[in-house]
């Protein structure tokens, strides 16, 4: 069978997004709007890559329940290859987030119990199954257990890894796979500080520090301040477009997918000119995403 050009490995779940009608404090009960939509970093990246014309495969756990059936059917209509998703007896995972006006996250809870319990089983198709030995591009999110991420280079020794933490609370999980070298990483400045255990004045210093730690390249965002893309030879910084934000949930996943697609399309992806174009495409995609009313 032909392998997908990119495997997206990690969380695939249902997002429950609540948009508050005004600023909140702990204990508030206020009007707002609530929607449910597909989510999870690996899922979001897979869907975005498919929209860019890059056919992705998904390695994730999805419950063998009605929610899971609905999720898989929807993903397949969007061009995501779900043949190797691990269907489990556990309920389909979910993520609950409350956004303040303007789209900033007030608070969130991620229930990734199914993925955590699966351990290395989610990777089985790429380790010893139909996709093994996988030697293509693999985007891996930080929702995988610590023990799996620490052994990632041993489990997928031939894959070209790109890492994304999923949240600041899970950023430290990527410290070990980065130290092993040869993996790319996509983070915000705060997540970079957690991984590097150091404070950074800007995204450029954070990106360069991640490359020094072992990253093949690093893309670091910094809210409305300049974002940076660095490898061993170059460090490019660009200011994101000024926009009125509606929802920031999933913006980092959009950055990754847009950069990834631009990188795959480039004949010389590590050149300064190509990196500049890649970073610009990623920031433009994020600007479009956060201004789109999803709630």
Write up this protein.
It is a single chain. The protein is an alpha/beta fold and 295 residues long. Helix content is 34%, strand content 25%. It contains eleven helices and 14 strands. Strand 10, helix 7 and strand 11 form a beta-alpha-beta unit. It is globular.
Name some characteristics of this structure.
11 helices, eight-stranded mixed β-sheet, 14 strands, alpha/beta, four-stranded mixed β-sheet, 34% helix, 295 residues
In short:
The chain is 34% helix and 25% strand. By secondary structure, the chain is an alpha/beta fold. The chain has an eight-stranded mixed β-sheet, with helices on both faces. A four-stranded mixed β-sheet has the order 3-2-7-8.
Low-confidence residue ranges: none
Q: What series of H and E elements makes up the topology?
A: EEEHEEHEEEHHEHHEHEHHEEEHH
Question: How much beta, percentage-wise?
Answer: 15-25%
Rg of Cα set: 18 Å
What is the terminal-to-terminal distance? 40 Å
- For the secondary structure, the number of strands is 14
The DSSP helix count reads 11
Tell me the strand order in the biggest sheet: 4-1-9-10-11-12-13-14
Shape: globular
Structural class: alpha/beta
How are the SSEs ordered, and which strands pair?
Layout: E1 6-9, E2 13-20, E3 32-39, H1 41-51, E4 56-59, E5 61-63, H2 66-77, E6 86-88, E7 94-99, E8 105-111, H3 113-118, H4 124-127, E9 137-141, H5 146-150, H6 152-155, E10 160-164, H7 175-179, E11 184-188, H8 189-196, H9 203-213, E12 218-222, E13 225-230, E14 235-238, H10 251-265, H11 272-290
Parallel strand pairs: 1-4, 1-9, 2-7, 5-6, 9-10, 10-11, 11-12
Antiparallel strand pairs: 2-3, 7-8, 12-13, 13-14
